[in-house]
Write the structure tokens for this entry.
Amino acid sequence: MIGRLEKTVFDCPDPRALAAFYAEVLGMRVNEDDGDGAWVVIGRDVGWRELAFQRASPYLPPVWPDPGHPQQLHVDIRVDDVEAGERAVVALGASRLHDASDEGFRVFADPAGHPFCLVF
């Protein structure tokens, strides 16, 4: 082993807002905030698996599934009840990108436009 995964980082226009979205979806909390909102880290506890959000300006969101504007990365979030999960993420500001509901996943965009999947 050369190293260990520290965190996955999302570029976005408003790190605090996107961190709040994923913290609510994943049951995490803010572990780090640089004070001016340009860098925010969430997790279950300090040092555990974390997601980080950094301000990018200008920010150009991915366009899924347009290969001319690739998604760069996405997060798969396992849910027990996909209908309840969909209602919850949409209420938090996500938007659905993919209509197929019988493939074991549903694709959404988070409030900054990053694709993510609810898998079931």
